[in-house]
Input
Amino acid sequence: RSTPKPSSAASYVYKRQRLCFMTELALPKIDKKTLEKKDYIFKSLAKLINPEYVLSHKDEIKPYETDGLSAYKQTPLAVVMPENTKEVSSILKFCHEENIKVVPRGAGTGLSGGALPLQDAVLLSLGKFNKILDIDFENKCVVTQPGVTNLGLTHAVQHKGFYYAPDPSSQLACSIGGNVAENSGGVHSLKYGTTTNNILGVEMVMMDGTICRIGGKTLDQEGYDLMGLICGSEGLLGVITEVTAKILKKPQVVKAALIGFPTIEEGANATSEIISNGIIPAGMEIMDKALIEATDNFSKAGYPRDAELLLIVEVDGTESEVDTLLKDVSSICKKNNCSSLKLSQSEKERLSFWSGRKSAFPACGAMAPDYYCMDGVIPRGKLAEALLEIRRLSEKYNLPVANCFHAGDGNLHPLIMYNGADKEQFRKTEEFGAEILKACVRLGGVITGEHGVGVEKRELMCEMFNDNDIQQQLDIKTSLDEKNLLNPGKVYPILRKCAEEGRVHVHRGEEKFPDLPRF
Output
């Protein structure tokens, strides 16, 4: 099926294919025309920025072959490392005029292949954009370049008792620009929101080199909510060169509860009941038995190993408010038959509760040679159902899985254990992951909470969106990037020109492309 022919000349037709798995992923090889003008491209780029920051030798560009997803790799045409917005504008203008594709890249910690390079594209690395430009405590905001790390933002303001709220597990390494591109969350997103709720403005360069500013230091902006459009756009609409982020005053008191449950159902019911009683914790995380054991082995956090489900609930506010909330949380958990309950008595103990959860990903390194981190969202009331379905799929594919959830907002992160050297096992892992995300949609959720669609989930977009939905999204994309040069091949299937109709079609496995290279 396809949508009716739209009036716009720069239109797309989206064709749905229900049985589409990530194993069908393919990215284009470098075409003959681009190959023939490689030297011209390198020399031209070297005139626009410091020649030392134009990388083209295979040994120089090898570190950029993949991002945090790491299951796929592709060599870029070249890597450029501009130092200021003017240079970014010059690079994009040149690439636009010469019809050269561009893939923006931040810290490379993304987990959906959003920064995966293309063989016929220039990879635009923003690693040199690593300075904080202005700290405005009066207006409670920071103006920063996109290459500054998430945790670096908090370190810059904590001496005045402030912090930056969104805290993904990779906050030590991930960059603010990447957080904006993916609308990253974290354990404290339940109360304080994801990146989109904590960003006030951006400076962005369009694909034709135009520099524009959206938002600023004020909380409200006139006109359309363009910030809402840009945050989470995965590098498809523009290259972010500056971010104005909101900072918050640290709460007076922060305490946490570490609660074990004998069954998945009882822990999930307690989680739903806490929210339905009007309690909004600063953070609320769930881990299953496999992850309890792995993280406790890794961090020695003192987790209850006899529990089937572990719930960490953190509350903040005034002393009396925190004590009242923890009392209510304890009462709800006891009502739901918790097997253990421990309240933090000091800041050191609170941090120890979180030490295991924060080290969940590295802890899984002891469980298998490789793990595949999924990212989906379900309604809170479906937590138990989702965990039981993941357990069933684990048995079906004979692959171990460990689960951690941002329980308060239903964002789940199953970690599938596999051996990347075994191609068949990796194929099964991809299918396992696709089935998890399809289950999320069936339960009333979505295919991504904070990692983005990227390359990983693009073949599953049809699980969530119909033809008209996709058409509208593609119309926005082409209104800002009419040639589809900015991060192509991400989020939506590869675009192919249909000569007889003069339009661009999106093919979903209907044409055979070479498989995307794996490790």
